[in-house]
Design goal:
The chain has 139 residues and is of the alpha+beta class. The chain has three helices and five strands; from the N terminus they run H-E-E-E-H-H-E-E. Strands 1-2-3-5-4 form a five-stranded mixed sheet.
Length: 139
Amino acid sequence: MTLRRSIENGFATLVTAAVGATAEVFTGYEDETQTHPCVVCVANSATEEPQESGNFFIEISVSVKGQIDDDPNLDNHETLLSLVNDALLVDDLAAQLSVASGASVFHPVIDDGQSSAAQGRSIVSVQKFKVYGCSAGVI
């Protein structure tokens, strides 16, 4: 399994534990049919730094998606978003990701901010992170 996939799975494991049956959790780009509400964890890019070190900065997006028609006041969306944020916006996220992903995640995990926007009949809130780490076998 690639480091990017391991980190996606680590985020998905933490989110799944937090949201329970409230929403389905997916990883990777939209190659599956996603029902709303859902959460999607995607490793957007990975950059080795320094070169030839085996250590990577991995940019992750965690998207909370809801259907506007089913949730006109966005109460359910805000509740789901709160559960996801409570799980991921924690001081020991790197340690939790190391356990959940099987990779070695080093401090700091950088919170790159959150945005929300309507996309057609959906509302999507995206929390971005930058993770610095390596595959567990590297260290």
